[in-house]
Structures are given as C-alpha cells and as structure tokens.
Amino acid sequence: MTPTSTTASASSAAAGGFDDVTASESSLRRFLHGLPGVDQVGAEARAASLGTRSIKTTAKAYAIDLAIRMVDLTTLEGQDTPGKVRALASKAMRPDPADPSCPPAAAVCVYPDMVGVAKETLGSSGVNVAAVATAFPSGRAALDIKLADTRDAVEAGADEIDMVIDRGAFLSGRYLQVFEEIVAVREACGPAHLKVIFETGELQTYDNVRRASWLAMMAGGHFIKTSTGKVQPAATLPVTMIMLEAVRDFRAATGQMVGVKPAGGIRSSKDAIKYLVTVNEVAGPDWLDPDWFRFGASTLLNDLLMQRTKMTTGRYSGPDYFTLD
Q1: Taking Cα atoms as reference points, which of 320, 238, 233, 245 lies closest to residue 275?
Q2: Of 225, 249, 274, 303, which one is the catalytic site residue?
Q3: Is 274 a catalytic residue?
Q4: What is the pLDDT of residues 208-235, one digit of tens each?
Q5: Does residue 96 have an active-site annotation?
Q6: Domains present along the chain, CATH in parentheses
Q7: Residues 130, 87: Cα–Cα separation, whole Å
C-alpha cells in the first residue's frame, strides 16, 4: 500500500460520485464499499517502518513542545470532582509551573457536567474545553438524548464536542443512520467543533476504519478520532496511519482539511514522536498543528514534561516531580 496509489484510487472513488452518495442508504453503501481495500500486512509494515525513524536533537525538542501543544488533557471517570477538573485545567494552562517557556496544552476534555467548571478555570487562556457527548462511551441512546447532551455541553461553554458513533449501527451496515446522526450532532454543536469517535478497537478491520473515516468526513466532522480510551486496543499507529491517509485523500478530493485525534494508550514521548513522524510522512506538514492533530491523553503529558526537562537540564526529574492526573 503506497501513498501514491492510495491517494489516486481514493480520490478517484470520490470524484466518481461524491456529490450523490448521501442520497440513499444504497448509494452510501456503494460509495463506502467502493473505497480501496486496505492491505493489512502492508499497512502494518509501513507503520512499523515509520515508527523506527529517528530525528535530530533539535527536532526532538521542537517535537516535544509541539506534542504538548497538541494534548487534549483528559479526565473521564465517574469519580471526577470539580476540584480535580480545576487542577487539570490549571495544569493545561501551565504544564510546568517552574518553566514559563513550556507551552500550554490544546484543550481539557471532560464530561458535559464538568464543562462549566473547566471553562471558568480556563477563562481567556486560549486552552479549549472539549466535552464528550452523545451517550459516551457506548453511543447507544436515542438521537434526541444525544442532541440534548450536545446542546447542554455547548451552552455550558464547550468549544469542542467529542461524539461517539453507534458502532452497532455501523457494523450492521446502517451507514445512513450513522451519517445522519453525525450531521444532526454537528448542527447541534453550533460554533463548537465536532470530533467523531469511531472506537476503532470495535470496528474489527482496517477497511471499516477507512469507511468510518470517509463517512464522518462527508457528514461534516471537523476531526476524526480513534477511541474513547475505554476499549482496548485504543489508538494504534497503523489505525492512525489509515485515518491520516483518509484525511489526505479527502482533501485531494474536496479541498477540505479534517483533523485526526488518536486517543488512548499513548503514554510516552517516544510514542508521541512516532505519531508526529507518521503525520508528516503520510498526511503532510500541514497537519503538524494543534488545529489539525491532537493527542487524547492523561499520562502522556507528564512524560513529555520529563523529557523536556531532561533536554533542558541534562538530568531526569523523578516521576513524582509533576502532578499526577
């Protein structure tokens, strides 16, 4: 599976009927199943190859700061409290209080009922508030409940909504239902940006990941996101590579850019840099920006801060030097 051949075939598929694919369930199915299949062995080999790339020390320092700026610092637990969310928001604004040159995170990601707390703490800092909605993490609820969940989060101040698709509907081939739900949720978002979560660990095949990516982009998602973090496997490099190919091909077909967010299981600076190399090599440098690529993570930020301190001072800080999230 080479970048050139994949781009050509996917773009040709879009050009051959993109404007009409949402007219009916059958036309949408024909379009999605007409996308080029993913060579599993080839995809995994290429992802593994990209994961072995090394970068120079100066580039590593830049990559670590960029990765920090791309983090959606996340807490999605039933035991979340206003105090925990305030502490998380404070950390997102000043990840390393001892070093004012350390950049802030991109966003704080919380449940809808904690949006107001996060928004109040973040104020005009520029760090966004993202809220998971639409019956997260299962995605199994009536549409009116999903839309109410979304509107409540936006009214509370959410800048971004992370919705989760109904995997049962998708795996049953009810693509139009999934498409129409994404369209409706995007409308309910108003000015907020929409990230569409696939839960790729449940989609079973790379072909389904590619189909879900195109479905979400055609429905108007601003970002496509791998996982809720509640199901294993969550984000993987091959899955993220396939999603990056999809956004690249979608721009080639439509002129529109869509972001990508791997989430769940990315814990080390070494892994984050592997993802950034893959972004650059597969989608291109335009995506090396927090507006177009994010990491959904909690523990990743601390490792990035430890590596950053090591590069600045020449010594590692202990794991308890930074607050635990």
Answers
A1: 238
A2: 225
A3: no
A4: 999 999 999 999 999 999 999 999 999 9
A5: no
A6: 3-313 (3.20.20.70)
A7: 16
